[in-house]
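This part of the workshop introduces the protein records we will be handling. As an example, a complete record with its sequence and its structure tokens follows.
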Amino acid sequence: MDYVYLDSDEKIEKALVVFSGKKRIAVDFEGEFNLHIYGEHLCLVQIYDGTDFYIIDPRSSDVSVKALEHFFSLPVEKVWFDCQSDSALVNKVYGLKICNVFDVRVLAKMLGYSGNLKAVESEFLSIDNEIPKKKNQQANWLKRPLPEEQIAYALEDVHYLLELQDVLVAAVKAKGLEKAVGHAMHKATAVKKIDPPWTKTSGWKRMDAVEKIYARHIWIARDRIARRFNVPASWVMEKHLIPALAQSRPRSEAELVKHLSSVSDRFIRFLLPALKEELKKADEEAARKL
């Protein structure tokens, strides 16, 4: 599959001139979400303008945030499938908003289809993609150069989006759902408030106020070590240990070590003092709350 590789501001700005002359473009992302290294990262932007494929490489040292902002703010309609996680990533990493998004998943859901992109394409376009999905979903999108198989997988996500948009728009009109879709589209493409990451801890909603204090401080300790080693936080300490420690609140180093038996030697000597420090802070904060 041929594509134009945009790995510098200059190349991106030239492509923006082309995109500006289009009515719409199909867009998708590939990202890194604490799978191979610490944190969340935008790794690839795939684009199809109805004629040619493009890839923006935000990992390139020659691509600036300003160039990405120029692309995201481009007035041309950007056709997406399920833009919420991608919008959240751009907002979280760069503090940017993606403008003029048309999310075709909104139409699919309105028509009663809640599956992923491949399922919706199969239903409405009779397209079955043979590129292995699971293998590429778990792939490392940070490495360079990317294997051609991964690039082909990424581009498939934008290949049929414009055609899918046409079919879904026609189906929505046939059912008289335009007004309902408009409201749902506005809701789906709005920038969502970013909740603190520790609120994603397992069982957070069931915790009482004091348990949440401890869970937050334990999360901070684990995150500090993950950031130090540039590894996913789950490599440092399994996530189920956060609520367990928040409930048990070990009072001695010996008790704490018992809970951390699964933590590797690589991390334990750094994690242990970090947890002791944060648990002390949690004790003080909890005492003020009581």
